[in-house]
Amino acid sequence: MHRRTIPSTAVEVTELGFGASVIGNLYRTTSAEDAAAAVDTAWDAGIRYYDTAPHYGLGLSEHRLGAALRDRPREQYVLSSKVGRLLVPNDHPTGVDTEGFVVRDDLRRQWDFSRDGVRRSIEETLERTGLDRLDIVYLHDPDDHWQQAADQAMPTLADLRDQGVIGAIGAGMNQSALLARFLRETAADVVMLAGRYTLLDQSALDDVLPAAREHGKAVVAVGVFNSGLLAEDRPAEGMKYDYRAAPPALVDRARAIADVCQAHGTTLPAAAIAFPLTHPSVINVTLGMRDPGQVRRNTRLHRQFIPGELWHDLRDQGLLRAETPFAPDERSQPCP
After folding, report:
1. CA 21, CA 191: separation in Å to the nearest integer?
2. Is the pLDDT of residue 290 over 90?
């Protein structure tokens, strides 16, 4: 699988990444056997970038991902996790987590972007994974914590990167405006952008993507299906868009995009995966993968041939923003 490098670092990621939130029991239970088999299948498919976080299943995702990777050659893959939410004992458990993961809530999340909090979070992640290092560390959802994140967390990560403890550093969020500030004003190398550069939402063209190009930094795209509306060949009423029921106008727009994809011999979900990678600053698309079947489907979609003319037709029909740039892609035909 093709790899791309985070500028100014030695970190190379495969174009397709394994998102481990779902093996932390996001929304429903995933068996330990399915989680391990999903990682094994991803490895066999050539995926060498794996992303997790303490937040995912109150540490369950990190435990499971570490166990599945522990016997793999460490130099052959890139592992990222996140800081900003420490896991501490929960003095008032209810029996189940309240933040979307089907796990017991014996622990709770505690926001902490301080220097000590960052170092403690990394140490605890290494304990949970049983691995020797993290290649990329992101600040996780620092939306309401800019000052501490910029003044303490990012400099702490920069020190660890400069010491060779971490390969690359950045931030991950569902919004693009603050990520642009991290790229412009801090030592971040890469940002993880959720849902803001997709076939239905190109708002990142207003801020984070120009910032990445201007400063020679990178973007990892996640949430490229916008919670599900772009995940099937034919969008239907009732499908989710950004975690809510999609408005009818957006369903109609997704269907129009699907029609253009079909006319070019491809599918909506394949185009949804390929689209972010047409921007010169996007180096990876990471998808949540719960079991071997999801891994096989996602890798098959990623490998699907996408004619370059598709992007131009979508733009000409007003289904993509007029200023959407297209970098050459080895899976696309050259366009005049």
Report:
1. 17
2. yes
- The helix (H) or strand (E) run that includes residue 79 is strand 78-83
Contact, 52 vs 65, CB < 8 A?
Answer: yes
Give per-residue pLDDT as tens, 98-124: 999 999 999 999 999 999 999 999 999
**What one-character DSSP code corresponds to residue 151?**
I
Confidence grade of residue 331 (pLDDT, cut at 50, 70, 90): very low
56 classed as catalytic: yes
Two tokens, residue 55: 């937040």
Count the Cβ atoms, other than its own, within 10 Å of residue 303: 15
* Residues facing residue 136 across a β-bridge: 80, 168
Q: Where are the alpha helices (DSSP H) in 152-286?
A: 154-162, 177-185, 208-215, 248-263, 268-274
How far, in Å, CA of 102 to CA of 241, rounded? 22
Candidate list 49, 50, 56, 138, residue with the active-site label: 56
Q: Please report which helix (H) or strand (E) contains residue 32, including its range.
A: helix 32-44
Q: Read off the pLDDT of residues 226-284 as tens digits, 9 standing for 90 and up.
A: 999 999 999 999 999 998 999 999 999 999 999 999 999 999 999 999 999 999 999 99
